[in-house]
Amino acid sequence: MNQPFDPSALFGGGEGGENPMAGLLAQAQQMQEQLLSAQNEIAAAEVTGSAGNGLVTVTGNGTGEVTAVTIDPKVVDADDVETLQDLVLGALADLSTKREALAQEKMGPLAGGLGGGIPGLGQ
């Protein structure tokens, strides 16, 4: 007699490690939850880049949006606009570097966990 196909036979529990696929699927789900949590933390983070010892600061979130720019009036000189432009670019570059560091801090441990002998992951 034919028995109906039971997917738990492939992916279901089994005790004492009878089915390693169940453990792998649970681990993948846990990693997915950790990844989503890390992405949410990054998106909610406020990051500030600066240039000229704080004369120009640029604030943004982890998703790439710039939310504020602050320019110290000391640096505003109508005869030297280029310096102000360079300071704004420097602050934006610093903001980008700090965002990347934040993403590496939050996502780095997860990327390392993807290895597990699967070619191309976590390498």
From TrEMBL:
Where it mainly occurs, coarsely classed, is cytoplasm
What one GO molecular function would you report for this record?
DNA binding
> Which InterPro entries does this one have?
YbaB-like_sf (IPR036894), YbaB/EbfC (IPR004401)
Q: Which GO terms describe its cellular component?
A: bacterial nucleoid; cytosol
The family annotation for this protein states:
Belongs to the YbaB/EbfC family.
Subunit description: Homodimer.
General function of this protein: Binds to DNA and alters its conformation. May be involved in regulation of gene expression, nucleoid organization and DNA protection.
Instruction: State what protein this is by name.
Output: Nucleoid-associated protein GIY30_20940
